[in-house]
Amino acid sequence: MSHSYFEANARERLAQLLDAGSFRELLPPGARMTSPHLPPLDAPVAFDDGVVVGAGTLDGRPVLVGAQEGGFNGGAVGEVHGAKLTGLLERALDERPAAVLLLVESGGVRLHEANAGLIGVSEVMRAVLAARSAGIPVLVLIGGQYGCFGGMGIVSRCCDAIVISEEGRLGLSGPEVIETTCGVEEFDSRDRALVWRTVGGKHRYLLGEADRLVPDDIAAFRAAARELLDTRPDLSLAALEAEHARLGRRIDRFGDCRDARDIWTRLGIAAPERLPLLDTAEFLAATADRRA
Amino acid sequence: MTVRQWNTQAQNRAARRERAAALARGRHVASADARALLEAVLEPGDRVCLEGNNQKQADFLAKTLVSVDPARVHDLHMVQSVLALPEHLEVFERGIARKLDFSFSGPQGARLARLLGAGKLTIGAIHTYLELFGRYFTDLTPKVSLVAAQAADAAGNLYTGPNTEDTPVIVEATAFRQGIVIAQVNEIVDRLPRVDIPADWVDYVILAPTPNYIEPLFTRDPAQISEVQVLMAMMAIKGIYAEYEVNRLNHGIGFDTAAIELLLPTYAESLGLKGRICRHWALNPHPALIPAIEAGWVESVHSFGGELGMEAYTAARPDVFFTGADGSMRSNRALCQAAGHYACDMFIGSTLQIDLAGNSSTATLGRITGFGGAPNMGADARGRRHASPAWLKAGREARAGRNTIPRGQKLVVQMVETFREHMAPAFVDTLDAWELAEQAGMPLPPVMIYGEDVSHILTEEGIANLLLCRTDEEREQAIRGVAGYTPVGLGRDKRMVENLRDRGVIRRAEDLGIDKRLATRDLLAARSMKDLVRASGGLYDPPKRFRNW
Amino acid sequence: METLTFEYRGGRALAAPAAATLTGVVGSGNLEVLVEPAALDGACRVEVTTAAVGFGRIWQAVMDDFFARHPLADVQISINDVGATPAVVSLRLDQAVEAFRGGVA
């Protein structure tokens, strides 16, 4: 029986993603490393501050893992939460695991913690880049209810590869933020079909922002992560400039599109209106060699 | 000696039509002339039915009615089943209408209470659907009815399709008592798929500028079903459906009953119940029933109304749903209510408050929401004469040890978690309905289901079988015994509750042999809207607000 | 927020020492339950921090029933609650004890 990644909480995801029984938590709940900012605001704390970090093995190879809990404040990053992720990534420099896996589920910075949360996110970004430059791949998995937005959206795009499910969402500003800022005519956040075809996993995969699209099954995320363990992206200046040039061409090609469906049509995908309904295997077949 | 005129109503009708003659070409009137039409045919004090259903709304005609000149059209008496749109109350605010008889006002309940308090309207009575329809044919016949249909042809025949709902009852009452029927339609076509309302029952047809609004009222996203609801659904299936072999039934709206629907192909199947329960339904086309239909559980479904997105699915399953020769579903609220009242062995639904006598109410302070159809579903049909195993068993339990002539009884199950959101207890000493009745000057507290009709109360703590209670005291303790940690539950007589449990009046999950650890969302045949679409083979097309793809 | 403390005596210690376990999530209508071995002189101690203020009597009744179902000794139970109903609280407590006893990984 398949186990839904979307439905599982952070601990359940880790238990099934890693080799059985291999996970060893750092700063476990018993350490009570909770947020100092929430109690003065009379807001509830979580014993792990909404993120589970630790070490385990994937197919016998050592990995470090961090999993955000979307159920606690939408996975928003506070000071402790951010520091746990930063510490995990810095630890990778010493331990040199096969990879660092980040199971991201976050609306961005925890508003209660304001600047401390913002600084926390920027420290995570710097730590990601440091780990990558030390040759340790940092892989992101996205498939939870709250998606991956705000600061963690930026963090995720700073990593080596992203595995996403159709249910997963990736973006900078969340749908409600866009509607509030730009008006419902620009973006109707209650139109969930619009939301998903704009920030959902399928579209992010077609745009090339996510590297793998997998079904909503923890075993499928595990298989994709295992395959990506040996990812060694070219971090040379030439490669970065080529990537910038590619992004420039992407804007030239699609910049005037009003809707994701326009982009799919321009990509030459047959019957693009069908894409949202296809299951993952059918979708991958229908869009093979058509990604931006 | 004067000769009595026996056709004054027909003469009045002719006069109204004469005033509107210049506006119509055949039966067709342009939407730009809609307001002029209403001002021509309406007279002060008219009884008017503005078709407001659970789902389909005559929204263009509602807006038009709000726009008429109150100097010409006033003191209308609105007789309509549902107040769903803001316009349904604006006619009172603008002084166009004065009196109201209705059934249900869910979304407008708070505003209705305010308008009543401000003296903007008087309420004749709050009815169940069948009662109000009954009065359409006695003392509340509409003089003018404003209805909605999917399509009309040149002659004025109407196609109402899956969302037929109240239209036949309204039109029949109006047309055959010399009233005026005006229909808004979404399209005018050369050839209708089928004729749901014949043209000679219809006076005027208006092509509306936008399609009529339909509310997807019966769609429940399986992602929101909790594990406590799964546990309660397991208890319902094993402790009630299987015990009584319930085969003809109605489910209320809500996540509690959606969980039961989604457990049929999994948990109920594992108990070997397929073919033994749940074969015939009086039910809207609930998307949550798709997995059970696909797994072969369901022989028939007759519906009160349609459900947005279920059109292609119901059309593709004509062996199950009531379907016209054209291939599309047909609903009919009045007939389905009759089926639910007389032909179903069980009604099961959620509620907001239950008192110590088992009276159940969805009334809350400051809101006048009415009843809809639940009281007709959730009441013993005392006129019923045909037997079935479920009906007979319930009757035996209720009458055992009494010297009464044998008869059956309907199973009426109220399913509720002991606490709602924000720790509001579902069990109370006194229903809010009493205070609401006082506030609003109602003759009766608005009780959805009377305690004497309730056969079982099901909570996460257990099932109380009220049929087996022999005294008021037993009944009260049986209710307290499943009321959990609410003040009512904490006030139980523990010894008496244990005694009731020994007698099987109260049954806990463990008494039913249910392993609570199995009560997880993994048991649901669909855990997301996408799962429902998959189960339907891609035929179900959910409204966009329910998608995450 | 409100903090409530309950202490029970007369329970039985587990045969084998168990590791701390966390069950549930601190989200609306939900709670997390941390169960840890603790040298409490045979007591079972429960500390609840809850966002729903004023329900001490109900918590007392829920915890009394819990201890009747699971008479534990030398165990510390710590709860962060965001207005879960008693049904959800009882369910999480049962799940937490089962995980603590090693029934679930």
UniProtKB/TrEMBL annotation, chain A:
The keyword Cell cycle does not apply. One of its GO terms (cellular component) is acetyl-CoA carboxylase complex. GO terms for molecular function: acetyl-CoA carboxylase activity; carboxy-lyase activity; transferase activity. Keywords: Transferase. InterPro entries: AcCoA_carboxyl_beta, Acetyl_CoA_COase_Trfase_b_su, ClpP/crotonase-like_dom_sf, COA_CT_N, Malonate_beta. It comes from the Bacteria. GO terms for biological process: carbohydrate metabolic process; fatty acid biosynthetic process; malonyl-CoA biosynthetic process. Residues 1-237 form the CoA carboxyltransferase N-terminal domain. It holds the Pfam family Carboxyl_trans. Transmembrane segments: none annotated. NCBIfam families: malonate_beta, PRK07189.1. This is Malonate decarboxylase beta subunit. It comes from Plasticicumulans lactativorans.
TrEMBL record, chain B:
InterPro entries: MadA (IPR005777), NagB/RpiA_transferase-like (IPR037171). Coiled coil: none annotated. This is Malonate decarboxylase alpha subunit. GO terms for molecular function: transferase activity. NCBIfam families: mdcA. It holds the Pfam family Mal_decarbox_Al. Gene3D superfamilies: Glutaconate Coenzyme A-transferase.
UniProtKB/TrEMBL annotation, chain C:
One of its GO terms (molecular function) is acyl carrier activity. The modification O-(phosphoribosyl dephospho-coenzyme A)serine is found at S28. Keywords: Cytoplasm, Phosphoprotein. The keyword Cytoplasm applies. One of its GO terms (cellular component) is cytoplasm. Its main location: cytoplasm. It is found in: Cytoplasm. Covalently binds the prosthetic group of malonate decarboxylase. Subunit of malonate decarboxylase, it is an acyl carrier protein to which acetyl and malonyl thioester residues are bound via a 2'-(5''-phosphoribosyl)-3'-dephospho-CoA prosthetic group and turn over during the catalytic mechanism. Belongs to the MdcC family. This is Malonate decarboxylase acyl carrier protein. The gene is mdcC.
